[in-house]
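Structure (tokenized):
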């Protein structure tokens, strides 16, 4: 069985091989939410069990949450060599200095494992194997004897690794072989293994496990069912972003916007116990959606405290790269403290949802008329 890159990387990480920070997304909205939380440029990768996804357009970059939404929307559902993309891996974009190739597999002819390594990694490794095979080092460890770290360092030296990389490169080769051996693998591969200012990192991962051994590796099978929970977020056709703490409250806010002649641009439910950080992240998400002219934040404090909401709003507005027009309905637990925080920051608010919704629509109409 071949495992998705996201699962292979979890295995590699558990065995001590450095990987990039990453999360799985099943929708454009989840990708946008993850990118917002990571707050760095990201790479968005189609999760398929076939090669050549980069050349097919299944690997793209995004600098901000809005761009990640559009990129994810293009990749999801894409057909790559007969396989439909159903989920994505969102990772921090690496500052790559160099790329290498390391693989452990079974040499059927020799009837033993073979470690292959090259100073040239990436998408052209298959062409390199055909045109210049001498650049790929092969080493056959004895499967009946423990593979030792000094052997892995010797492979790194024969690859032509600089002296300062021989030890860390050897360490990763040794750990990759341990993954291969521990999980009864047919193939354990890193292509590319990248050199960054932070050191060597597995930028990609391939793991193929012998089917007959899966009963010994139920932890791998369980990883296939992993799914990250993100905000309940839906894009709509309007220009007023609606955020609420609870699905019913958010839907009611949307109804009030419609009743006053406006059009919701988003449905975003932050849940009943949203923290200051969650409020900040939610605002960042909707503000990354281009059609949004006005944000309507409808919060009835219960588990969610009004002062946490206020602090999150203030922080988000301070960090936003866009001019933000926001209307807030804020009442409930700690409402006096929350309202005080908003007043000190010069941010208007309402305690009536009806008044706040009407104000949001009026403000949106004024902005459209001024253009």
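Design, position by position:
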């Amino acid at each position: 069985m071949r495992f998705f890159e996201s699962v292979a990387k979890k295995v590699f990480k558990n065995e001590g091989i450095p990987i990039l920070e990453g999360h799985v997304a099943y929708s454009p909205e989840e990708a946008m939410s993850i990118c917002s939380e990571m707050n760095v440029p990201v790479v968005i990768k189609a999760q398929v069990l076939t090669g050549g996804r980069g050349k097919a357009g299944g690997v793209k970059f995004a600098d901000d949450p809005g761009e990640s939404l559009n990129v994810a929307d293009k990749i999801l559902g894409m057909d790559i060599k007969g396989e439909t993309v159903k989920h994505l891996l969102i990772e921090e974009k690496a500052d790559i200095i160099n790329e290498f190739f390391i693989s452990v597999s079974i040499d059927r002819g020799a009837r033993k494992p073979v470690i292959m390594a090259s100073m040239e990694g990436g998408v052209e490794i298959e062409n390199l194997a055909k045109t210049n095979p001498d650049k790929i080092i092969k080493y056959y460890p004895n499967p009946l004897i423990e593979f030792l770290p000094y052997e892995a360092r010797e492979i790194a030296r024969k690859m032509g690794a600089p002296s300062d990389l021989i030890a860390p490169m050897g360490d990763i080769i040794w750990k990759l072989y341990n993954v291969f051996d521990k999980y009864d693998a047919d193939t354990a591969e890193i292509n590319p293994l990248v050199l960054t200012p932070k050191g060597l990192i597995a930028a990609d991962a391939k793991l193929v496990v012998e089917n007959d051994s899966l009963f010994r590796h139920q932890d791998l099978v369980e990883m296939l069912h992993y799914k990250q929970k993100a905000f309940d977020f839906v894009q709509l056709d309007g220009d007023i972003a609606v955020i609420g703490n609870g699905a019913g409250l958010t839907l009611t806010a949307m109804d009030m916007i419609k009743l006053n002649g406006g059009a919701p641009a988003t449905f975003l439910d932050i849940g009943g116990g949203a923290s200051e950080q969650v409020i900040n992240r939610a605002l960042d998400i909707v503000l990354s959606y281009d059609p949004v002219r006005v944000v309507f934040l409808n919060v009835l404090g219960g588990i969610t405290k009004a002062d946490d909401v206020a602090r999150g709003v203030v922080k988000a507005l301070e960090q936003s790269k866009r001019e933000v027009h926001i209307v807030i309905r804020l009442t409930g637990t700690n409402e006096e403290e929350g309202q005080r925080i908003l007043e000190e920051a010069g941010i208007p608010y309402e305690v009536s949802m009806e008044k706040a919704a009407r104000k949001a629509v009026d403000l949106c109409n004024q902005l459209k008329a001024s253009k």
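Reviewer-requested clarification: The chain has three domains: 1-16+94-227, 21-93, 232-369. Residues 226-230 have pLDDT under 50 and may be disordered.
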